[in-house]
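Throughout our pipeline, every protein is held as a single compact record rather than as scattered files. This encoding replaces a full spatial description with a residue-level series of whole-number codes. The remainder of this section carries one protein's record, kept here as part of the documentation.
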Amino acid sequence: MTVTRRGATPAQLEALYRERFEHFVRVAAAVCGDGELGRDAVQAAFTIAVRERRSFRGSGTLAAWVWRIVVNEARHVAREPHAGAFAMREQPRVNGDQDDPLGVRKWSATLPSRQREALFLRYYADLDYATIAAVLGIEVGTVSATLAAAHRALRGKLEEVQR
């Protein structure tokens, strides 16, 4: 969703919220390590987005602007003292499959935060590299390198298990 003039309307933000809420929650939960804290982070992020909607310049997509707020709010929630108690709690998967026989979720949790965030933005939020770069405040080439490093680390863990 792009906005041609300066600022975003409450209706545009509401439409984005309704359309992408579960995507925002999945990524926020991955960043802060807890599903409920992820929901709280998304709620807080949209409160910020509505309050600051006039600061949206329209130079990128509204979705990328909101994604950046969601990720920053999830990072903030993760730094709060209560978040650490929930960090490794098992989260139910969206499709209901609780099994993770190889431990991929735990492996993902051990990645550096930028790698973890890039993975979740790419594969859970289905964002393209340019949008991920805008959300994380990095260059597109850095997104590619970050994802490659994350894939390499996860592949290494898989190879250890297969030995």
Notes: The mean pLDDT is 83. The chain is about 65% helix and 0% strand. Residues 10-32 form the longest helix (23 residues). The CA atoms of residues 91 and 97 lie 10 Å apart.
